[in-house]
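Structure ticket #2291
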Amino acid sequence: MMESAQRGKYAIGYFESWNLESLQGVIDAAEAMRAPVIIGFNGEFLSQRAGAGPSDLALYGALGKAAAAQASVPCGFIFNECAEDTWVEQAITAGFNLVMPADPAATLADYRRRVVRLAALAHSNGVAIEAEIDELPSGGGEHHGGSASDPEVAADFVASTGVDLLAVSVGNEHIKLDGRAPLDLVRLEALRRRVPVPLVLHGGTGIDDASLREAIGLGVLKVNYGTYIKQRYLEAVRPVLSSTEANPHAIVGGPSENDIMVVGRRVVRDAVLERIEILGCCGKA
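Resolution: structure written out below.
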């Protein structure tokens, strides 16, 4: 998928899911636009839930793998952003074909050591690996300033670890709740010249359109989206949840168009359609 995107000068979107209906909504949009897509789940969220364990990934892996197999467009399947190596190891054998260990709290030396081991394990199982070496600024109530990616450090990290994709920090922001901002395109161009693997932008929700188009022109091949999809989802389901309907089957798990699961799938589809065209991947499936 990355090779095709590179040849075609477009990017592929990772639109994050959290249950069956959101996964189906992402694929619905990709099929409507005949676009390759990356589906998947966030490892940080999954691993930090109360009562969660790595064995849960057997269920999530089977779900995503079945959805990808049924889809009429190419689907990558990622276990995204997890600081728990045990979970990443489990994901490698659970059906995901891309994993991303991410631990902003770790030192670069420790993270490098762990990524080398995980990359070898992933590659031995036919799974690709994405990494990041700089923390993005973050909103969402827990504000972190982040640090911009250094091209020389990035190139050395890729050469020493053998990762397949590298997420970079060039003005993009995690969990940006309001507004959209430009990227540091000069830094991005320097990274592209030094780093031989596909570059990834996390925090797609908060990147402005003009800047994103230029970034794709500079060789960004994967863009991650999550925050705005959940925002749209909550906007749609809150009115359903406030319904005074006495029959629960009319709202949850029933045949109605107002069923919360039906509404959720539809709004995720529409949210993906809002952003997927700018990536240039529509009609490329």
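Closing remark: The first helix runs from residue 2 to 8.
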